[in-house]
Every structure is written in structure tokens, then in C-alpha cells.
Design goal:
CATH class of one domain: Mainly Beta
Strand content: 25-35%
Oligomer: single chain
Structural class: mainly beta
Strand order of the largest sheet: 1-2-7-6
Number of strands: 7
Organism: Kosakonia arachidis
Distance between the termini: 101 Å
Family: Belongs to the small heat shock protein (HSP20) family.
Protein name: Molecular chaperone IbpA
Keywords: Chaperone, Stress response
Length: 155
């Protein structure tokens, strides 16, 4: 069994080049004005059935009042903004590895889509999405009529 000590300061145990992707990402983000990929929370999108979807966003340490979900036009926005009390509590930390930066995720929703509910459980924000396509817009098959009349043989 190998003994591994826990250092108060993060070391270079993985590789000296481990942070290179994050640096390049931040550089491109500064040039384009987009949020860096590393500052956005991870998410999963799952199709439950023909009309239900589930969006899971990883938000460890976030509280319900710090998160906002809104739909504007055909866009679903999920954002997080730290509370004032937490931003003042930055003293005394030796190392903070859990990222708590403000974020905003945007998703383009298909037509006739609604967010049915959302809940925060164990650091995962679950957003249920429902797509209801009206009957007049659903695909339907058109029967082809046979207009030829059968000729009967008379004897």
C-alpha cells in the first residue's frame, strides 16, 4: 500500500502541461468574449421518451436562491450568481478546488417546448422539458385512392 500525503498546496503531481488546455481556453475566451469552457458547469441531456427530456446540470455547493432558470423566446437560460455573503467569505481558505464562479448556460429549444419543472437535489439541478406538438403539425400519412373502375366480364 502506497502512502500518499495530503499537501496544503497543490503540486505538480500530474504534469507540468496539465493546465495548458485551460490557458488556451481562457485566451480564446478573451478574444471572442465567450465564457471559458472550464468556467461552465457540466451538464447531461437525456431523452426520456418521445416528448420528455431531462437536463441535469452539475452545480455542487449552489443554493436554490442563487440559481435562475428562464425561457425567453426559444431559448432556455440556466444561470448561477453567487450571493453577496459568500463573496465576502473568501478569507482563510488554503485551497479552493470547487469552482463557484458565476455562470450562464443557454440552450435553443425546439418549437412547442416547455419547461415543466426543476429541482435541486444533491448538487444536481434537474430541469424537465416537455415537447407537445399540436395534432395539426404532427406527420400523418395520406391514403392514395384508387380511381380506376374494375371492368366486369359479362357472359
Amino acid at each position: 500500500m502506497a502512502l500518499r500525503t495530503l499537501s496544503a498546496l497543490p503540486g505538480f503531481s500530474d504534469s507540468i502541461f496539465a493546465d495548458r488546455f485551460n490557458r488556451i481556453d481562457r485566451l480564446f475566451s478573451q478574444l471572442t468574449g465567450d465564457a471559458p469552457v472550464t468556467s461552465l458547469p457540466a451538464y447531461d441531456l437525456k431523452k426520456i421518451d418521445a416528448s420528455n427530456y431531462l437536463l441535469n446540470v452539475s452545480v455542487p455547493g449552489w443554493k436554490e436562491d442563487e440559481l435562475e432558470i428562464e425561457t425567453v423566446g426559444g431559448t432556455l437560460n440556466v444561470s448561477g450568481k453567487r450571493s453577496e455573503n459568500e463573496s465576502q467569505d473568501e478569507q482563510g481558505w488554503i485551497y479552493k478546488g470547487i469552482r463557484r464562479a458565476d455562470f450562464r448556460l443557454s440552450f435553443t429549444l425546439p418549437e412547442h417546448t416547455k419547461v415543466s419543472n426543476a429541482k435541486l437535489e444533491s448538487g444536481i439541478l434537474q430541469v424537465s422539458i416537455y415537447q407537445e406538438i399540436p395534432e395539426n403539425e404532427k406527420p400523418r400519412k395520406i391514403a392514395i385512392e384508387n380511381t380506376q373502375k374494375a371492368i366486369e366480364h359479362q357472359a
